[in-house]
Amino acid sequence: MTERVAIIGGGKIGEALLAGLISAGKPVKDLVVIERSPERSAELVDDYGVRVSDDITDAVEGARVVFIAVKPDAVDTVLQKLSVTDDDGELERVTVSLVAGIPTSRYEAALQAGSPVIRVMPNTPMLVNEAMSAVSPGRYAEDDQVALTVRLLESVGKVMVVPEKQMDAVTAISGSGPAYFFLMVEAMIDAGVALGLTRPQASELAVQTVKGAGLLLSESGLSPVELRAAVTSPAGTTAAALREFERAGLRHAVNEAAFACAEVSAKTARRVEVEGSGQGVQRGVETASEQQ
Ligand SMILES: NC(=O)C1=CN([C@@H]2O[C@H](COP(=O)(O)OP(=O)(O)OC[C@H]3O[C@@H](n4cnc5c(N)ncnc54)[C@H](O)[C@@H]3O)[C@@H](O)[C@H]2O)C=CC1
Ligand SMILES: O=C(O)[C@@H]1CCC=N1
Questions:
Q1: 131 in a known ligand binding site
Q2: Angstrom distance (rounded) from CA 181 to CA 101
Q3: Is the CB of 159 under 6 A from ligand 2?
Q4: How far apart are CA 138 and CA 140, in angstroms?
Q5: Taking a C-beta distance cutoff of 8 angstroms, is the pair 26, 39 a contact?
Q6: pLDDT digits over 63-95, tens only?
Q7: Closest residue (by CA) to atom 5 of ligand 2?
Q8: Dist. CA 124 → ligand 1 center (Å)
């Protein structure tokens, strides 16, 4: 893998990609991050020894693949800058968006005519080379560009190629999915503390349980239904717990959550357009800790 790769946006997902590619053996000299926050840039330089620039035009020069990992609201600004950069013609640079909710058509319309674009929905387990990335090629992406993108993403996890119309559903399952599990683990730890365990004890028990259960799911070849049945003894402890989950409507809650997630994804492009045109809309209320 000697292709030069540029990552625009060195936040959580940009860092996950950077860390994953480096740990998968990609030489740091073939990587560049474009990050506008000086504090964030300094962190990335310290932690990874990677070149970080705040100048898109300069940094993407010579890059075969340009990943975009900024928030949806920042995409148009990035595209304006990218649209006036020169990809030398020979490099056949491909723009790969990791951004939720913005269709390839928007990139294709903003970039130079015929620019190849690929849309990806990754997730943060990329940090530990266990990402699930869904890939949708845009209309001008060539097979070799899709293959290169898949190869890069396969070095940091699994890859599934899907039609772009499935991206909102994918986001609702694998893109946002890790957060659902972190919430579940938080709740398990709190329950353990309520039952008298110390918080470190409850954390270790819950985290190792989720890790082991995840490995069983991916490696045993058994379905979640079969694995759950194997834990559940007749009239036993697990049956009592599961009955409470069913009574509380866990399945319904997961379904509603996934639909809410997909809906926000589907409306993102329109929201960005409206907010970008100065007619900002009030979104849902975030807690202070979620505002980053
Ligand atoms: N966090 C996650 O679990 C996932 C995020 N995504 C997508 O990845 C994208 C990034 O998300 P996060 O990493 O969570 O956000 P983040 O806010 O942590 O990172 C975005 C970074 O981009 C930088 N930035 C913004 N405008 C820039 C510009 N013009 N030039 C250079 N740098 C710029 C910001 O300073 C920030 O460091 C989003 O579009 C999101 O939809 C997709 C899948 C999972
Ligand atoms: O919450 C978000 O909007 C991003 C997209 C998928 C995961 N995180």
A1: no
A2: 22
A3: no
A4: 6
A5: no
A6: 999 999 999 999 999 999 999 886 656 668 999
A7: 100
A8: 12
State the amino acid at position 96 in one-letter form.
Answer: V
pTM above 0.95, yes or no: no
263 domain residue, yes or no: no
Rounded distance, CA 186 to CA 180, Å?
Answer: 10
Residues 144 and 189 in one domain: no
Q: Provide ipTM, 2 decimals.
A: 0.99
User: Does residue 72 have a known ligand-binding role?
Assistant: yes
Do residues 25 and 103 share a domain? yes
- CA–CA gap between residue 203 and residue 139 (Å, rounded): 47
121 and 206 belong to one structural domain: no
115 touches ligand 2 (CB under 6 Å): no
Please tell me whether residues 195 and 57 are part of one structural domain.
no
Regarding the beta carbon of 101 and ligand 2, being less than 6 Å apart is answered: no
- The CA-atom distances, in angstroms, between 171 and each of 76, 130, 194, 219 are 21, 16, 33, 24
Closest atom of ligand 2 relative to the 123 alpha carbon: 7
Atom of ligand 1 nearest to the CA of 179: 3
- Distance, CA of 31 to CA of 27 (rounded, Å): 7
